[in-house]
């Protein structure tokens, strides 16, 4: 322990690549430069992270984007009020399916091009063919019910006319077990972050059919969830940490540092996987299975495109999906809780002294930017988007009621 | 008042610790105890066992899967909630500190469950203590081996008797305020570096 550090901060993380900004902040000195002694604890489940935040073992943690909302909305046991002053990146997930399902989809017109609409149409045709033949529904896995993975998988399927509640089964599997479960035939497909998609492709047991960046480009994924009671009492420590994370994220985005970053994440205490396995998420160049490969624009962004800004519109979109799938009732009280969870004000006030580009608004219309666009911001050079949903839908947080009632298969 | 015996399910990949918990539950008079090490096919097992209380270790990466299953009424006939008594923060902390978590069937009275959780916490702590002690014993054995090698090096290079070699190591350790095992390790390492290359 550094005796000179001004702030002692304890943080939890799951062994996933998108913890990189937090890990690098601790390992590469960004936290120390801000006077923080940052202690990182690897965890084995999101439930453990939630519990340890609730009882105060952790001040903050790497979390699934919807998880702090679920805590504040009372959807999980042992929850404590959690706020989000920083996002750990955009994108990074894929949908991977078994070789058998891929063969079935290919027979219905699927091609190895990651096009969500084409892949969804082929999957829908396969699902109906199986149902007509009396087969069991396909079983897909996600990492947690309150996860970007669950919501984007359901969004994709529903937009392609597949009812994820009736026509497939969705189960929960921990990320490191996904590829094995697929190979063993316990599941037919899954949605998870890297490197657990490339792992199945490398093993010859899976095909990547689409990616988060194609379903909703530049969309939110992991965040820093902070125990609110701690944040209220330690505003300076939190601001110092947000600056450290900002510098870390900028470093992580730079291709010149990708080799070193992959080396840090490869260590046994973090991912414990060879650096080569971590290159696809950093380069966006993925093997899809069967020899096909693709480079995906904006596959995973740890910093660019205001990736660290905790947009309230991101939190509100997660909320609309929680309502859609029956996780929470849409009431004025719940909406207010969802609106207050992400805290762009804290991000902005912590980074203001750095003179960097900061979005002027707290929310944006999601899906409105067709091309990369320079936006009005304090500081210079902030580019956002494109941020389209693959089905052309637009989410305007000011029209949230209409968005919620207009959703297909909504349980409302 | 007649009470039906509680069905307790213990999920723990660590077989020794699971056995310790099971023994504790049986000693406390619980006869309907089931232990599961592998969560494959657990939904079916839970439907068969219909547990009132589920005890699980926090190292288990399947907690998220289990919690999700507990919330789906079609997988488990009765809804299962986490053992939470908001008024009893100390007991929650003790459980997380010990590395254990418990889930109970909705509506089950806290006073029937608390002794089970308390027992699991104390057994988990006892297990951790045992594992730590075992680690220390292992370390001690390891350090004895190193001391023997260091003695051998001193006997050979300086023509000392075994007793004189040991005394020299001990005196050096005392003078430098270090452990004798550390001194021995330094000597073995140095001898390795200085020694003939074919020893590598």
From TrEMBL, chain A:
Taxonomic lineage: Bacteria, Pseudomonadati, Pseudomonadota, Alphaproteobacteria, Hyphomicrobiales
Protein name: Nitrate transporter component, NrtA
Gene3D superfamilies assigned: Periplasmic binding protein-like II
Main localization category: membrane
Subcellular location: Endomembrane system
Protein source organism: Mesorhizobium ciceri biovar biserrulae (strain HAMBI 2942 / LMG 23838 / WSM1271)
Key words, A-Z: Cell inner membrane, Cell membrane, Membrane, Transport
Coiled-coil zones: none
Domain of life: Bacteria
GO CC list: endomembrane system
TrEMBL record, chain B:
SMART domains: ANTAR
Keywords: Phosphoprotein
Any one of the GO BP annotations: phosphorelay signal transduction system
Response regulatory domain location: 7-121
GO molecular function list: RNA binding
Residue positions where 4-aspartylphosphate is found in the record: 57
Domain of life: Bacteria
Alphabetized PROSITE patterns for the sequence: ANTAR, RESPONSE_REGULATORY
Domain ANTAR: 127-188
Coiled-coil residues: none
InterPro entries the UniProt entry points to: ANTAR, CheY-like_superfamily, Sig_transdc_resp-reg_antiterm, Sig_transdc_resp-reg_receiver, WH-like_DNA-bd_sf
Name used for this protein in its record: ANTAR domain-containing response regulator
């Amino acid at each position: 322990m550094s005796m000179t550090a001004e702030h002692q901060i304890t943080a939890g993380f799951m062994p996933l690549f998108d913890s990189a900004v937090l890990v690098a902040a601790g390992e590469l000195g960004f936290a120390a430069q801000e006077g923080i002694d940052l202690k990182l604890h690897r965890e084995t489940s999101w439930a453990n992270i939630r519990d340890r935040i609730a009882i105060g073992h952790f001040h903050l943690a790497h979390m699934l984007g919807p998880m702090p909302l679920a805590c504040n909305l009372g959807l999980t046991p042992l929850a404590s009020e959690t706020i989000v002053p920083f996002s750990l990146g955009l994108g990074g997930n894929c949908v991977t399916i078994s070789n058998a399902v891929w063969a079935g989809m290919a027979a219905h017109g699927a091609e190895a091009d990651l096009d969500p609409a084409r892949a969804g149409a082929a999957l829908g045709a396969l699902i109906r063919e199986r149902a007509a033949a009396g087969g069991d529904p396909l079983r897909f896995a996600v990492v947690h019910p309150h996860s970007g993975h669950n919501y984007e998988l359901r969004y994709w399927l529903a937009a392609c006319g597949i009812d994820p509640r009736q026509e497939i089964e969705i189960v929960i599997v921990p990320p490191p077990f996904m590829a094995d479960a697929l190979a063993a035939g316990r599941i037919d497909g899954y949605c998870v972050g890297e490197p657990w998609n490339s792992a199945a492709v490398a093993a010859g047991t899976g095909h990547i059919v689409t990616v988060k960046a194609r379903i909703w480009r530049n969309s939110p994924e992991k965040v820093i969830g902070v125990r609110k009671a701690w944040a209220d009492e330690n505003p300076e420590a939190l601001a110092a940490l947000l600056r450290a994370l900002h510098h870390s994220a900028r470093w992580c985005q730079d291709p010149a540092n990708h080799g070193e970053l992959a080396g840090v994440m490869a260590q046994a205490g973090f991912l414990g996987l060879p650096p080569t396995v971590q290159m696809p998420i950093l380069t966006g160049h993925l093997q899809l299975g069967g020899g096909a490969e693709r480079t995906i624009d904006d596959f995973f962004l740890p910093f660019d495109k205001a990736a660290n800004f905790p947009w309230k519109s991101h939190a509100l979109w997660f909320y609309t999906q929680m309502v859609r799938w029956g996780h929470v009732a849409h009431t004025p009280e719940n909406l207010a809780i969802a609106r207050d969870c992400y805290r762009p004000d804290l991000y902005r006030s912590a980074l203001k002294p750095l003179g960097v580009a900061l979005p002027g608004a707290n929310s944006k219309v999601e899906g409105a930017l067709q091309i990369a666009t320079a936006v009005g911001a304090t500081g210079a050079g902030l580019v956002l988007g494109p941020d389209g949903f693959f089905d052309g839908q637009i989410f305007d947080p000011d029209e949230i009621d209409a968005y919620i009632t207009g959703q297909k298969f909504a349980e409302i | 008042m007649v009470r039906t015996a509680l069905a307790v399910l213990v999920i723990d990949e660590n077989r020794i610790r699971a056995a310790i918990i099971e023994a504790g539950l049986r000693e406390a008079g619980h006869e309907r105890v089931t232990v599961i090490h592998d969560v494959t096919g657990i939904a079916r097992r839970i439907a068969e066992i219909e547990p009132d209380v589920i005890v699980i270790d926090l190292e288990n990466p399947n907690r998220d899967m289990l919690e999700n299953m507990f919330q789906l009424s079609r997988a488990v006939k009765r809804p299962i909630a986490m053992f939470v008594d908001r008024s009893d923060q100390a007991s929650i902390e003790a459980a997380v500190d010990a590395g254990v978590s418990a889930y109970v069937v909705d509506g089950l009275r806290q006073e029937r469950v608390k002794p089970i959780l308390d027992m699991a916490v104390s057994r988990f702590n006892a297990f951790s203590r045992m594992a730590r002690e075992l680690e220390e014993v292992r370390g001690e054995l390891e350090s004895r081996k190193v001391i023997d090698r260091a003695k051998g090096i001193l006997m050979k290079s300086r023509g000392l008797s075994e007793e004189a070699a040991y005394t020299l190591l001990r005196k050096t350790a005392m003078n430098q305020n270090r452990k004798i095992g550390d001194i021995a390790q330094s000597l073995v390492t140095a001898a390795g570096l200085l020694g003939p290359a074919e020893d590598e």
